[in-house]
Automatic annotation (TrEMBL), chain A:
Residues 131-174 are annotated as: Disordered. The keyword Cell membrane applies. Keywords: Amino-acid transport, Cell membrane, Membrane, Signal, Transmembrane, Transmembrane helix, Transport. This is Branched-chain amino acid ABC transporter permease. The lineage of its organism: Bacteria, Bacillati, Actinomycetota, Actinomycetes, Bifidobacteriales.
TrEMBL record, chain B:
Keywords: ATP-binding, Nucleotide-binding, Transport. GO terms for cellular component: plasma membrane. It comes from Bifidobacterium tibiigranuli. InterPro entries: AAA+_ATPase, ABC_AA/LPS_Transport, ABC_transporter-like_ATP-bd, ABC_transporter-like_CS, BCA_ABC_TP_C, P-loop_NTPase. GO terms for molecular function: ATP binding; ATP hydrolysis activity. Pfam families: ABC_tran (PF00005), BCA_ABC_TP_C (PF12399). PROSITE patterns: ABC_TRANSPORTER_1, ABC_TRANSPORTER_2. This is ABC transporter ATP-binding protein. Residues 53-299 form the ABC transporter domain.
From TrEMBL, chain C:
It comes from Bifidobacterium tibiigranuli. One of its GO terms (molecular function) is branched-chain amino acid transmembrane transporter activity. GO terms for cellular component: plasma membrane. It is a multi-pass membrane protein. Pfam families: BPD_transp_2. This is Branched-chain amino acid ABC transporter permease.
Length: 470, 328, 327
């Protein structure tokens, strides 16, 4: 992680000033401020000395009102409301500062809006800043292009430390196009599952060989995405070069942390549960370092707006298809590595029984080192793909995904490689398909619920095997 | 260990010797068992006059490997039964199945007439069948005395709410401590009673585990390799203890690789190989059975104990463990 | 730079209700982890459920006692739901499931479709659930100064909540002390060391673990109430991070000790406030903005957590001997 820090230090000036008004800070500041009051959704808002307003009229490209869409306010304070018959929405807020209003990316796209989030600055004492009007019709500074599908769009860096808040698009959930939505959600579920698989496979390899469930794996994903952002936006590399740059940094961070932290801990025979707590600490450190250097906003890796196209019943775009293809190829590559190469077989032997592998002449430390490098490189790659797919990466994107990775890995069976792939696909598909039946912002909950249900029925996971006692 | 080379020849001498300050060990139950078993055939799966544990067609498969496939097996009440067999023969798995730590693919078994299929391990223990483990399980960060007290039967102080009122449980605690101390004395651990169990040597842990199992006065104790790692000096007293258990009315089933021990204290020997019971009978006749010697005892049959110990230590865990280990 | 202010602000954390809430949550976690060896990675879930149970039933007009019982009941049901499928499995599974379940509680609580009940992501504002609690205060209204600190007597971040909070912590500490020394606690410790051994000795391990999970969760639920009383119920302020901070507190103070969680909580919040205030006072805003100070504060906490586990795993109060035989 020292490498990461050094890397980041080069560009502090450009990143320092980004607004850092995250929900998390709200949570923390709540610890000290005693009268924190939440923003209130109101029908009509008029600024006074004690409150400011964030409001707007949600209209589509043809200036027709969008009715019943969900608007989420985040920033200093947060709240949620839906637009009324004329498309109007308003929040009354109490604290000065920046606020971001967000609508679902899918809704924005359906109605031809160029942005799904906009940030305004509210200052109660300043007449011109008492009221912030949000329009959504000019490309925003954060999520510049609407994502092709309603999948996993992290709202503009303003959700809480661990939530992925996407807003439900109740306006187009009518039964008529239900069939089309099934296909669309299945598709986006598979894509999301593939990306999740890319992350979970690495996490599972680490678990298999060392018995460690790494809580900092999410930060490895974020690292990949942010490095791609640095490559493209700050170093002006082409995307492919930035991706390779990100993967190299990811791999290097894997090597470094293995050498500096995990290898010494293993040598000291520190228990895996204690090591797990260390990964929690590491995750905190990395996450807040990202926030320190990159601020709280979503960082778009590419700025080009990719035109979507129709593929049978599915709307998609080239970037998504290419990302999915890369994910599939890499997963096949990893499988090939594990089953066909010498080192891969050694890796499987170590996961099977480290002591036996060591006794039969396999250099366990060497294998574990390779696994850490591979796992972090895979995480970085998935971070890049995720960043492109979600139109940006934020300091907490990985942390949000971490739980889904854990679920995927546990679902497939801890320590089994093919289990992680299947588990990820199940989680991805369940998450996206469930939004057909339950509110969209609860869909990650459904993925986690699946995990608990599966554990009830098959405690060892889908592919795991039970251990003998004694 | 300096004593390792002392041969361990004449067990008969100390088997009836009086422990300090006590009378000779009575052999009433031993005589009864001997009489009962005298007329039992030496064939695998033979019925016995007074069985305490009866198992029928118990099988357990791990993946494709059949770890245990026992057609019929009975354990004579009050007897000391030895279960021997090469590594991977399924002895430990059989223990696990009998005590509810593992579920068989098929089969039934009764303890003292009560069917035990799908009974949880803790219930099995409460019914009077207590086991020890091949890899000793002591609670490292509890004192030796606390370890012992955990072996005592459930008492009111172990209720979440009653535990808050010492008046309600102090009496039981006191009784248990007395019992624990006398057992510790018998197992030569009394000086260690306030030490953390984690500071004990491997052999002492074996002793502690055994002593702990006796806290609840079980009808049947199942000892998984009680002698492994115990130094020869302690072995004597350990064997004493096992013999005296029989005379307290406890039935003993033990897994052991130490043939001298088996020969001298077992009333009955059962041989397992590849999950099946291949031979059963009086120690003398089984040890001389050519098939058994070929299958298991081989050239090692007459080697001194210490050597066998050493060989056992380095050998891999049974194949079953590996077969079921996490697969990547 | 106002040094006195810095000191009094930092020391104010020593008695802050939030410190008490975290201490209580850590005492609960200590029963899970320190006593029973269960890796509960979702203590925040218990806290949030407790907070919801209390606040929602209060806003429905229940009396104070009934609301607290409601919170405990919810925590109990939650413990059962989590415990029954997972307690027979390894520690990895329990940690994953508690983590996931806490997240489910939070996601469902903040969902727009739940706005009518939980207030969605906006949460429940204090006037809806704190009036009865504040009304129960024996103090006259107004503000009082004691030593360095001045707080309102009854309203919001008051002396009243401080009194109740620390009284709860004291009671919880006494109870844990009793439990630690009782046969019940001994069985739990046995389970921590080796649950199969305890099982082989005839103790119903799953029942003991469920009791432990419930008990620790109940303290968590009380901590949740204490946490939200001086502010509002905000699902996102009781997210995964809160669990992690609770873990840091427990490990800092020393797991399996009675006073460790309390000491850890005081130390964490006092030192964190001190570090952040000091940075704010000494480093100009142009170099590090105040938001970045917040981030930096947590970076330091993360490093502290890592170093603690690596170099002093027994914590401040812990007994090194107990760790010597680990595994």
């Amino acid at each position: 992680m020292t490498a990461v820090r050094r890397k980041l230090r080069k560009y502090p000036a450009r990143m320092l000033l980004s607004a850092m008004f995250l929900m998390l800070l709200l949570a923390i500041s709540g610890v000290w401020s005693t009268t924190a009051q939440a923003a209130q959704p109101v029908p009509v808002c008029n600024p006074t000395g004690t409150n400011g307003c964030v409001n707007g009229i949600l209209q589509d490209a043809n200036r027709n009102p969008v009715v019943g869409a969900t608007v989420t306010l985040s920033g200093k304070e947060s709240a949620t409301t839906t637009t009324d018959d004329t498309g109007k929405w308003a929040f009354s807020v109490t604290a000065d500062g920046k606020y971001t209003a967000t609508i679902d990316a899918g809704v924005a796209k359906d109605h031809g809006l160029k942005a799904n989030a906009e940030t305004v600055d509210i200052e109660k004492s300043d007449f011109s800043k008492q009221r912030g009007v949000v329009r959504f019709d000019k490309p925003g500074e954060t999520t510049s292009s609407p994502s092709a599908s309603g999948s996993a769009s992290t709202s503009s860096g303003s959700s809480s430390s661990s939530s992925a808040s996407t807003q439900s698009s109740s306006s187009n959930s009518a039964g008529a196009n239900f069939g089309a939505r099934v296909w669309q959600q299945l598709y986006s579920g598979i894509i999301f599952g593939l990306m999740l698989a890319l992350m979970s496979v690495g996490m599972n390899l680490v678990y298999g060989t060392t018995g460690l469930s790494s809580f900092s794996h999410g930060e490895q994903v974020t690292l990949g995405g942010l490095m791609a952002y640095v490559g493209v936006q700050l170093l002006h590399m082409p995307l492919w070069a930035a991706a390779i740059f990100a993967i190299i940094i990811g791999a290097a961070s894997g090597l470094l942390q293995n050498e500096l932290v995990w290898a010494p801990l293993r040598r000291k025979h520190v228990g895996t549960m204690q090591q797990m707590i260390v990964t929690i600490g590491l995750s905190m450190v990395l996450q807040y370092l990202f926030q320190f250097f990159f601020g709280g906003n979503v960082k778009g890796i590419t700025t080009a707006v990719d035109q979507g196209f129709q593929l049978g019943p599915i709307t998609t775009d080239t970037a998504t298809l290419v990302s999915a293809a890369i994910a599939i190829i890499v997963i096949i590559g990893v499988t090939f590595f594990l089953y066909r190469t010498r080192l891969g077989r050694a890796t499987r032997a170590v996961s099977d029984n480290a002591a036996l592998a060591s006794a039969s002449g396999i250099n366990v430390e060497q294998v574990v080192r390779v696994v850490w490098i591979l796992s972090c490189a895979l995480a970085a790659l998935s971070g890049v793909l995720m960043g492109i797919y979600l139109n940006g990466i934020a300091w907490n994107t990985g942390a949000v995904l971490l739980l889904l990775m854990f679920s995927a890995v546990t679902l497939g069976g801890l320590g089994t490689a093919n289990g992680a792939l299947v588990g990820s696909l199940v989680i991805g598909i369940v998450a996206d398909m469930s939004s057909l039946f339950i509110p969209n912002d609860m869909r990650y909950a459904s993925a986690l619920a699946i995990l608990i249900i599966v554990l009830l029925l098959r405690p060892q996971g889908l592919f795991g095997k039970l251990q003998r006692v004694g | 260990m300096a004593e390792q080379n002392i041969p361990f020849h004449d067990l008969a001498k100390w088997a009836t010797k009086a422990p300090e300050g006590e009378e000779l060990i009575s052999t009433a139950f031993g005589d009864k068992v001997e009489k009962d078993l005298a007329f039992v055939d030496n064939t695998p799966g033979v019925p016995k006059p007074d069985p305490i544990l009866v198992a029928d067609s118990v099988t357990r498969k791990f993946g494709g490997v059949t770890a245990v496939d026992v057609q019929h097996f009975e354990i004579e009440r009050h007897g000391i039964t030895a279960l021997i067999g090469p590594n991977g023969a399924g002895k430990t798995t059989f223990f696990n199945l009998m005590t509810g730590f593992d579920t068989p693919n098929s089969g039934t078994w009764q303890f003292d007439g009560h069917p035990l299929s799908s009974v949880s391990p803790e219930k099995v223990a409460r019914m009077g069948m207590v086991r020890t483990f091949q890899l000793t399980k002591v609670m490292s960060r509890l004192t030796v005395l606390d370890n012992m007290l955990l072996g005592a039967p459930v008492q009111p102080g172990e209720g979440m709410l009653t535990s808050l009122f010492p008046v309600r449980w102090r009496k039981y605690e006191k009784q248990n401590i007395e019992k624990a101390e006398s057992l510790l004395e018998r197992f030569l651990l009394i000086k260690k009673k306030d030490d953390f169990a984690g500071s004990l040597s491997g052999g002492q842990r074996k002793l502690l585990e055994m002593a702990r199992a006796l806290m609840r006065d079980p009808q049947l104790v199942m000892l998984d390799e009680p002698m492994a790692g115990v130094n020869p000096a302690l072995k004597q007293s350990l064997l004493d203890c096992i013999m005296s258990l029989r005379e307290d009315g406890t039935t003993v089933l033990f897994v052991e690789h130490d043939m001298n021990m088996v020969r001298h204290i077992a009333d009955w020997v059962t041989v397992m190989a590849e999950g099946k019971i291949v031979a059963e009978g009086q120690p003398k006749s089984v040890m001389n059975d050519q098939a058994v010697v070929d299958a298991y005892l081989g050239a090692r049959a007459n080697i001194d104990l210490g050597d066998i110990e050493d060989i056992e230590e380095v050998e891999q865990p049974p194949a079953a463990t590996q077969a079921e280990g996490a697969e990547l | 730079m106002d040094f006195m202010n810095l000191i009094s602000n930092s020391l104010g954390e020593l008695i802050a209700p939030t410190t008490a809430a975290y201490a209580l949550a850590a005492i609960g976690l200590n029963i899970h982890f320190g006593m029973t060896g269960m890796f509960n990675m979702g203590q925040a879930g218990f806290m949030l459920l407790g907070a919801y149970g209390f606040a929602i039933s209060q806003s429905m007009g229940w009396n104070l006692f009934a609301s607290v019982c409601m919170a405990l009941l919810l925590a109990g049901i939650y413990a059962l739901l989590l415990g029954i499928p997972t307690l027979r499995l390894g520690p990895d599974y329990l940690s994953m499931v508690t983590l996931a379940a806490a997240e489910i509680v939070r996601i469902v609580g903040r969902s727009t479709s739940m706005t009518k009940i939980t207030g969605g992501s906006g949460g429940i504002s204090p006037q809806n659930f704190t009036t009865q609690f504040e009304g129960a205060s024996p103090f006259p209204s107004g503000r009082s100064t004691f030593l360095l600190w001045t707080y309102s007597n009854n309203v919001a971040d008051s002396w009243w909540i401080r009194l109740v909070g620390w009284a709860l912590v004291l009671i919880a500490a006494l109870l844990t002390w009793r439990w630690f020394k009782s046969p019940w606690g001994r069985v739990l410790k046995g389970i921590r060391e080796d649950e199969n051994a305890v099982r082989s000795l005839g103790k119903p391990v799953t029942r003991f673990k469920l009791q432990s999970l419930f008990l620790g969760g109940a303290f968590g639920a009380l901590a949740g109430i204490l946490f939200v009383l001086p502010r509002s119920v905000q699902p996102d302020s009781l997210g995964r991070q809160v669990t992690f901070y609770t873990w840091t507190i427990l490990l800092m103070g020393g797991a399996a000790t009675v006073l460790g969680p309390i000491l850890g909580s005081c130390l964490l919040w006092v030192s964190l406030t001190f570090i952040k205030e000091l940075m704010r006072d000494t480093i100009p805003d142009t170099i590090i903005s105040s938001n970045q100070v917040e981030a930096l504060g947590w970076v330091i906490m993360g490093i502290a957590l890592m170093c603690l586990v690596i170099f002093r795993p027994q914590g401040l109060m812990g007994d090194r001997r107990e760790l010597a035989f680990h595994g």
